Amino acid sequence: MTSDGAFTYNGGRVDPGETQNIRYGISETYLGDPVRIPVTIINGERAGPTVFLTAAAHGDELNGIEVVREVAFEWDLSDLAGTLVCMPVLNVPAFLAQERYLPIYDRDLNRSFPGHEDSTSAKRMAHRIFQNFIEPCDLGLDFHTSTRGRTNMLHVRADMKNKRVARLSRAFGSNVIIDSEGPEGTLRGEATNAGVPTITIEMGEAHRFQRRLIDDALAGVESVFAEYGLRDTSLVRWPGWRTVITDNQEKTWIRADVGGIVDMHYEVGSLVHAGDRICTITNPFKDDNTTVEAPFTGVLVGVLENPVVYPGNPLCHLVELDEKTLGVVEQQQSPDRHAHV
After folding, report:
1. d(CA 276, CA 272)
2. Would you say 145 and 204 are in contact if contact means Cβ atoms under 8 Å apart?
């Protein structure tokens, strides 16, 4: 941001009270045509923080796209104090191909930040995005989904040792926060390292819009706006219960020991107790069943959607709850505990 409150990027300027929709060039195709990403910059008339919202760093992860678009184009932002930098589709080549990775040597854009102007195609794209639209911000929300064949309950991933990141993650108001440093090259990790506290929001599955999750994520965005004073009409939300999953707690991907067809007995977000039968793996004749039980009591943050597995394939992501939180969740879910068994 400039001293007069304008947001500037290489090739443009957005003054207070202005909104710009741009298609910003970050690369070129094999034919020399430009690769452009859509960016909406909304600069409020009142001073405040600059926040980026990004989605589709993986091209098949669609839920976040609708979150970012609705904030930019359907919310009344006339009272906005600060600036929003909205990028609903970061990975345009992968989005067009409906693939997870860049269809350019199958590179992962979300392992290429902060990028480099003289490196690989992925790092050049990441560099232009990062330099122009990430580094000038004060905080960021990066929306993701699970990969194809699996689904996630809405949760936040954040480095809770960083106080500024911890504040942001709690402001979003999800039930589950998984405490972890962003892996090298991720937008979350590299933005935070550059002084822009950023969290990842995981929500649902690839290749679809899931309205309930989109609405829940929008409520989280509104809560963040309230925490940082971007909108007077917003309120910080309390999700009813919250657990922060640290390295000191149990968390595991439960994997298949045999191949076969999976019958999942619980939905994502369900509470399971130690010894509960999470799923059953059978062969085509259903004459050889393998039961998979919960090794400890916790919540299913992620579960398999594609019902076929090889040995070693992930079945579900289970995280432990502390005793106080467990009691609250048991009260909330007890009527439905065995609804899916």
Report:
1. 6
2. yes
